[in-house]
Automatic annotation (TrEMBL):
A cellular component term, taken from the record's GO annotations: plasma membrane
Gene Ontology molecular functions: L-arginine transmembrane transporter activity; L-lysine transmembrane transporter activity; L-ornithine transmembrane transporter activity
NCBIfam families: 2A0303
The UniProt record lists the keyword Glycoprotein: yes
Source organism per UniProt: Eptatretus burgeri
GO biological process entries: L-arginine import across plasma membrane
One Pfam family in the UniProt entry: AA_permease_C
Keywords attached to this entry: Amino-acid transport, Cell membrane, Glycoprotein, Membrane, Transmembrane, Transmembrane helix, Transport
Protein name, per record: Cationic amino acid transporter C-terminal domain-containing protein
C-alpha cells in the first residue's frame, strides 16, 4: 500500500520534458509574427472598447478612466511578460497548461488545463450571445429575441429566457472555419481586425474634433441645475469625480478588457519562429490594445459629460449628442467585427489545449487526433465548439462568467510562479526539463563541475573551487551569492520561498479586500495583519532576489526578477478575492470534479503509460 501511495505521489508531481527539436510537430507551422499580432489584437480588443469604457466612466471613474485603463494595462503587461518568456522557453501548444507541466507537475497541469478549457468555452458562449444581442439591437422592434421569448420560452432556473439560435449558429460556423485550417482562419481574423482598428481610428480622430475639455472639469452644482433627466451620479466633479478609489475600482473592471492575449501562447506548434514571434506578438498586441482603449475612453469623456454616457451603447449615444447620428451604424459594424474576432480568439485555443492534454494522456486520446489534410485538431475543434454552442443556446451565462475570470486569473498566477521556479532551477536541471536531454528518469540535482568552470572562466578561481564555494554558501545562508550558478540547494530555497510568497499573497489579498470594504471604519487588526504580511512578502522577495539564476539563453526574459512576477501574482490573486462566495462555491465544485478525474486518470494510467517525456 505504501509503495502504491509513493508511486501515486510521484506520478502527480512528474514534470514534462520538451524535446529540443521544436520543429517536430503534427500541426502546420505556417503562422507569422503578423498573424499572431492580429490574433492577439482580435482576441483582446473586443466588446470592451465599445461598451466597457462607457460603463466604467459613468459608474466608477469618470474622466480618470484613462488612468484606470493605464493601471489595468500595466497589470496585464506583467502577466504578458511572463507568458512571453515561456513562449520563448517552451514553444509548444497548450499555453499555461504546458508551462505548469514543465515547471510544477502533472496534477497542477491537469487542473490548469481543465480550468482553461472551461474558461474558453464560457468565454466563447458569452461573446456569441453579445454578438447576437448587438444584431438584435440593430434590428430594432423587429428583433428575434421578442419572437423567441413569446413563442419558445424556457422558464427554468439557470437557463436562458429563450434559446439563442443566432449565437449557437455563429459558434458552429466559426468552429467550422477554424477546423478548415489555421492559415485560412487567421486570414479571416486579420480582415475583421483591420476593420475593427479602422473604426476605432475613426472614432478617435472624429471624437477629438468634437471634444470639449470642460467635460473633464465638471462643476456638480452647475451641472445638476441643468435639469436633464438622463444624467447619472456626478460625484465630486472634476477629473476624479469618484476619488482615487473609484479610479482603482474602474481599473479592476478594465483589467478584463485585456484578457485574451494568452491565446497567442497556444500557437507554439503552428508558428514559423515561435521563440521570437510569440514574445513580440504578446507585447505588441497589449500595446496596441492599450492605445485603442486609452484613445476611445479619452474622446468618449471629452465629447459628452460622463454622467450622460449610455452604459449599453456609449459610442452611438455620444455621436448622436454631437450631431453625428449616422456614425452609429459604422460603430455597430465595428462592434460586430470586434466581437467576431474576440469569438474566434476564444474558440481557437480550446482544441489546442485539449490536443496537448490528450497527447500527454490526460484526456481521451482521440481528442489529440490531427486531420492529415487540414493539420488541425479537427475532432477537438468540432466537439468543443458544439459544447460552447450548446451553452450559448440554452444557458444563462451571467452567473458563469465570474468562473471564467477566476480560471483565467489562476492561469496568469501560475505562469508567473512558473517563471520564478524555472529561473532559479540549476542550469542542468533547467536544460533537462525544458529541452529533454536527460539520460535518467531523475532530476540532475547539481550542475556539473565543467559547467561551473565554464561559468567562472573570467575569474581567478578554478571551476571546481568556485563550484564547492557556491555549494557551501548555499547551505550556510538563504542569501546566496548571485554570481554562483544555481544549485540544488539554492533551487530548493527558491521553491520554498515561492510557496511562501503564494501563501502570503493569498492572506494579504484577503485582508486587503476586507480592509477596503470597511475603509471608513478600518479594523486595527486588519491594518496590523496587512503590515505583517507586506513585511513577510518584502523579506521573501529579497531572499529570492539573492538566489542565483540559471544562465540559459532565451530570446526574451522577464526583467526585474523576482519583483515583476510576484507583483503580477499579487494583482491576480487580489482580483480573484473580489468574487462572491457563490462564485467560489461553483468554482470549487468544478475543481473537485477536475481533481477527481485527474486522480482516477493518473491512477489508471500510472502502470500503462510510458513516460518517456516525464521526470519525477
Amino acid at each position: 500500500m505504501l509503495l502504491h501511495l509513493r508511486s501515486f505521489s510521484k506520478s502527480i508531481t512528474r514534470r514534462k520534458l520538451i524535446d529540443s527539436n521544436f520543429e517536430d510537430t503534427k500541426l502546420n507551422r505556417c503562422l507569422s509574427t503578423t498573424d499572431l499580432i492580429a490574433l492577439g489584437i482580435g482576441s483582446t480588443l473586443g466588446a470592451g472598447v465599445y461598451v466597457l469604457s462607457g460603463e466604467v466612466a459613468k459608474k466608477a471613474s469618470g474622466p480618470s478612466i484613462i488612468l484606470s485603463f493605464l493601471v489595468a494595462a500595466v497589470a496585464s503587461v506583467l502577466a504578458g511578460l511572463c507568458y512571453a518568456e515561456f513562449g520563448a522557453r517552451v514553444p509548444r501548444a497548450g499555453s499555461a497548461y504546458m508551462y505548469s507541466y514543465v515547471s510544477i507537475g502533472e496534477l497542477c497541469a491537469f487542473v490548469t488545463g481543465w480550468n482553461l478549457i472551461l474558461s474558453y468555452v464560457i468565454g466563447a458562449s458569452s461573446v456569441a450571445r453579445a454578438w447576437s444581442a448587438t444584431v438584435d439591437g440593430m434590428l430594432g422592434s423587429s428583433n428575434t429575441s421578442y419572437f423567441l421569448k413569446k413563442n419558445m420560452p424556457i422558464g427554468l432556473p439557470y437557463f436562458a429566457e429563450f434559446p439563442d439560435f443566432i449565437a449557437a449558429g455563429l459558434i458552429m460556423v466559426l468552429a467550422g472555419i477554424l477546423a478548415l485550417g489555421v492559415k485560412e482562419s487567421t486570414l479571416i481574423n486579420k480582415v475583421f481586425t483591420v476593420v475593427n482598428i479602422a473604426v476605432i481610428v475613426f472614432v478617435i480622430l472624429v471624437g477629438l474634433s468634437k471634444s470639449d475639455l470642460d467635460n473633464w472639469n465638471l462643476n456638480p452644482e452647475t451641472f445638476n441645475r441643468s435639469g436633464r433627466s438622463d444624467v447619472g451620479d456626478v460625484g465630486q466633479g472634476g477629473f476624479f469625480p469618484f476619488g482615487v478609489s473609484g479610479t482603482l475600482a474602474g481599473a479592476a473592471t478594465c483589467f478584463y478588457a485585456f484578457v485574451g492575449f494568452d491565446c497567442i501562447a497556444t500557437t507554439g506548434e503552428e508558428v514559423k519562429d515561435p521563440q521570437r514571434s510569440i514574445p513580440i506578438s504578446i507585447v505588441v498586441s497589449l500595446l496596441v490594445c492599450f492605445v485603442a482603449y486609452f484613445g476611445v475612453s479619452s474622446v468618449l469623456t471629452l465629447m459628452i459629460p460622463y454622467p450622460q454616457l449610455d452604459t449599453s451603447s456609449p459610442l452611438p449615444k455620444a455621436f448622436e449628442c454631437v450631431g453625428m447620428a449616422w456614425a452609429r451604424y459604422l460603430v455597430a459594424g465595428g462592434s460586430l467585427c470586434a466581437l467576431s474576432t474576440s469569438l474566434m480568439g476564444s474558440i481557437f485555443p480550446m482544441p489546442r489545449i485539449a490536443y496537448a492534454m490528450a497527447e500527454d494522456g490526460l484526456l481521451f486520446s482521440w481528442l489529440g487526433t490531427i486531420n492529415s489534410h487540414t493539420k488541425t485538431p479537427l475532432v477537438a475543434t468540432i466537439l468543443l465548439g458544439f459544447m460552447a454552442a450548446l451553452m450559448a443556446l440554452l444557458f444563462d451565462l451571467e452567473s458563469l462568467v465570474d468562473m471564467m475570470s477566476i480560471g483565467t486569473l489562476m492561469a496568469y498566477s501560475l505562469v508567473a510562479a512558473c517563471v520564478l521556479i524555472l529561473r532559479y532551477r540549476p542550469d542542468g536541471s533547467s536544460r533537462h526539463s525544458a529541452l529533454g536531454d536527460c539520460s535518467s528518469n531523475l532530476l540532475c540535482e547539481l550542475p556539473s563541475e565543467s559547467v561551473a568552470a565554464e561559468y567562472n572562466d573570467d575569474k581567478a578561481n578554478t571551476g571546481q573551487d568556485f563550484y564547492h564555494e557556491c555549494q557551501s554558501w548555499s547551505i550556510k545562508s538563504c542569501c546566496c551569492s548571485t554570481e554562483c550558478p544555481p544549485s540544488a540547494n539554492s533551487s530548493f530555497i527558491a521553491n520554498v520561498f515561492v510557496a511562501v510568497v503564494g501563501v502570503l499573497v493569498t492572506l494579504w489579498s484577503a485582508v486587503l479586500v476586507h480592509w477596503l470594504d470597511n475603509f471608513m471604519q478600518p479594523s486595527p487588526f486588519a491594518i496590523v495583519m496587512l503590515i505583517v504580511f507586506s513585511g513577510g512578502l518584502l523579506i521573501s522577495c529579497l531572499i529570492l532576489w539573492r538566489q542565483p539564476q540559471n544562465s540559459a539563453h532565451l530570446t526574451f526574459k522577464v526583467p526585474l526578477l523576482p519583483f515583476l512576477p510576484i507583483l503580477s501574482v499579487m494583482v491576480n490573486v487580489y482580483l480573484m478575492m473580489t468574487f462572491s462566495g457563490s462564485t467560489w462555491v461553483r468554482f470549487s465544485i468544478w475543481m473537485v470534479v477536475g481533481k477527481t478525474i485527474s486522480y482516477i486518470n493518473i491512477y489508471i494510467h500510472t502502470h500503462t503509460r510510458t513516460y518517456t517525456h516525464l521526470q519525477t
